[in-house]
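hey so i finally got around to running the thing on that chain from the lab meeting. sorry it took forever, my laptop kept dying and i had to restart like 3 times. anyway pasting the input first so we r on the same page abt which one it is
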Amino acid sequence: MEIGVFLMYCASIFGLLCSFFFLSILVGARNNLESPKLKKYKKVSIVVPAYNEEKTIKKTLDSLLALDWPKDMIQIIVVDDGSTDNTSEMVRGYKKKGILLIRQKNKGKGSAMNKGLKKAEGDFFVCLDADSIVDKHALKKMMGFFDNESTMAVTPTLKIHNAKTILDKVQKIEYIIGIYLRKTFSIINGLNVTPGPFTVYRKWFFDKYGGYDENNLTEDMEIAMRIQKHHYQVDNSLESYVYTKPASSFFDLMKQRVRWYKGALDNFINYRELFHPKYGDFGVFILPSCIISIIMIETLCAYILIKNIIEYSKSIINWYHIGFDFSNLFTYNFDWFMFSIRPLVILSVVGFIMGIIIILIAKKIANEKNPIKLDFILYLMIYLFLFGFWWAIAIYYKITNKKIQWGSNKL
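ok and heres what got predicted. didnt touch it at all, straight out
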């Protein structure tokens, strides 16, 4: 069997096994997906770190002021991390509404969050990105989970806001799948990220174990890994909707994903002790499956790329001998590819059907009304290779020790 076909078999079988496992978890918990009812209001401090967010921060603050929560039990702090636009001027307009503005030199998101932590008065602490909008019922739906003393953080349901372009819609599919996976992971206490848009924490966790790691690219992942290290629970509320802005261009999307993936590599290494049975499903299945998925996709994409380069090189040599007749430019032999292998075709069809099932379930549990047509096909066609490409860049940045900073226009 050729190595390319072998790799495709491994990737297909592993992907299907993971898909069936995650689906079985969600089906088993289908009667227990609603948020627990809130029993008592507690004071909550919400910190909004901002860097050049004059175009979006007004909607963000308006959504916070509209939260269905007692006004005397909520504190809103904006930390302007050295913005060069009118972000601070926009926030000053909310001073009479009780929103506190703190300004500092540009030091990064982690530093901004720690500045906000020092001013936080609530029993619970929330981070909200300055380009996100919160549903007015989100906080109330999340706080009931904290009746469980082991719950240290609760994550919301993240959705793309106002998807218009094809790129927006492809990202929307990614976020919908993320909703499905985040809820599934939370059922087995396997969440390894507490997203920046509106995750709620017990503030005493920061008081006891320290604030945000200011040198970490993905501080939301680092906090989740730290929570897991101390054997606490990270839950997810399907009914708490937070709408975030999609990356507006392919280059912006690439920058964002490379930062995420490079940060993930850093955290996998820094918290390598979590790859252990004493951390339950998180250490035995979730973390190892993440690493295996990355290795498989990188290996498969590299093989396909190298194989195509070799085939084209052979064609160029042949064209040289026949006087560079380019009429058969795209007619070289694809027999090595999966379409000639019937069992692999069957696996691919099953995988495609499973993908549709997962998307439909994710749409339902996320209460997503809009239809998904071309978006899904585009997602399946291009995302695997984009995922591999972004991870390759992140690995390159890790190996070469290049820096990526929050709020920077450069990788």
